[in-house]
Design a protein that fits this description.
Order of helices and strands: EEEEE
Number of helices: 0
Low-confidence stretches: none
Radius of gyration: 18 Å
Number of domains: 1
CATH superfamily: Jelly Rolls
Structural class: mainly beta
CATH class: Mainly Beta
Largest sheet: 5 strands, antiparallel
CATH topology: Jelly Rolls
CATH architecture: Sandwich
Mean pLDDT: 88
Distance between the termini: 59 Å
Length: about 120
């Protein structure tokens, strides 16, 4: 299972890899991503069970090595683990408008007010 994120998102942080001894306990309990943040969870080795806690049916997704799942903002979920696994989580948000990006190599704006 390979999941994809909506267009226009950029990765701003990656966590892991985590295994059965290093996975933060908060990921095993119900939690949510903040508004505007998507996550892409990828299983590197072994397997895990991803559970949606919002009442959907089916509520569980089995993920094995090579599988990914896209996690939308604000939807409750948690992980269930059994045995060996390794996973990484990449957090994404909307890309800033092009007008806010300063291409490398250009001088930085002068804010000293001179004239």
């Amino acid at each position: 299972m390979t999941a994809s994120l909506p267009d226009g998102l950029v990765c701003y942080r990656e966590l892991g890899p985590f295994d059965e001894t290093s996975l933060p306990s908060g990921l095993r309990a119900e939690h949510r991503l903040k508004l505007g943040t998507w996550a892409l969870l990828t299983v590197l080795d072994g397997s895990i069970r991803f559970r949606w806690d919002d009442g959907r049916v089916p509520d569980a997704v089995e993920l094995a090595a090579g599988d990914s799942i896209a996690i939308p903002p604000a939807l409750p979920h948690h992980l269930e683990t059994h045995g060996f696994f390794r996973l990484v989580i990449a957090f994404h948000r909307a890309a800033p408008p092009d007008s806010l990006l300063i291409p490398s190599g250009l001088p930085k704006p002068n804010h000293h007010g001179g004239g």
